[in-house]
Design brief:
- It is a single chain.
- About 40% of the residues lie in helices and about 15% in strands.
- Strand 6 and strand 7 (about 180-190) form a beta hairpin.
- The protein has one domain (about 50-220): Uracil-DNA glycosylase-like domain (Uracil-DNA Glycosylase, subunit E).
- The chain has helices at about 25-35, 70-75, 80-95, 125-145, 155-160, 165-170, 190-195, 200-220; strands spanning about 60-65, 100-105, 110, 120, 150, 175-180, 180-190.
Amino acid sequence: MSSSRTTATAPEDAYTAEPFVPGRGGLPALRRAAAECRGCPLHRDATQTVFGAGSADARVMLVGEQPGDQEDLRGEPFVGPAGKLLDRALAEAGIDPGEAYVTNAVKHFKVTRAEPRKRRIHKAPSLREMTACGPWLAAELAVVEPELIVVLGATAGKALLGSSFRVTEVRGQVLEEEIHGRPERLVPTVHPSSVLRADDRESAYRGLVADLEVAARILS
């Protein structure tokens, strides 16, 4: 990983966070450097970078899509309604939320507004934006070295496993793949925000817990 730094925004045909990623210093250095990332245009509308949170010794890493409105404002991942639901589901499945490392495939909030002054709504990041942000996720994986990655939703799955990923086809399964040059075990499931949007929220929640129980058995 490169240790060079720049404040310029990358040209459109070369979006990448790579020049901003330090080669040493662990999670604290990564977090400081990510705050200055200009590797793609998403930083322009976001309040701040939202980097991962948790211990470098965490056994499980949870990877979501991108920060939401509350995460963008507070600078922490999974602190909104979806994060609270995830914590409840993890605890019910037998995984201590406080012992997990949580992060997102994309570190800036991609925001849209249907009308002026309306609530800010997230817009799914593009493949180019996910690829640009990939060096941050690769660096987090290299430092934390989790025993297991829980993939939360389609966007995180595509960022880690490629554009053909379909969460409905593999959720609750244990996958073994090479991710950023490292052999990893992964359990995909839905993003907790999809549970909040579901018509049958209780059924959707039970499905999330069941998938997380698969992860818990691996970690036991």
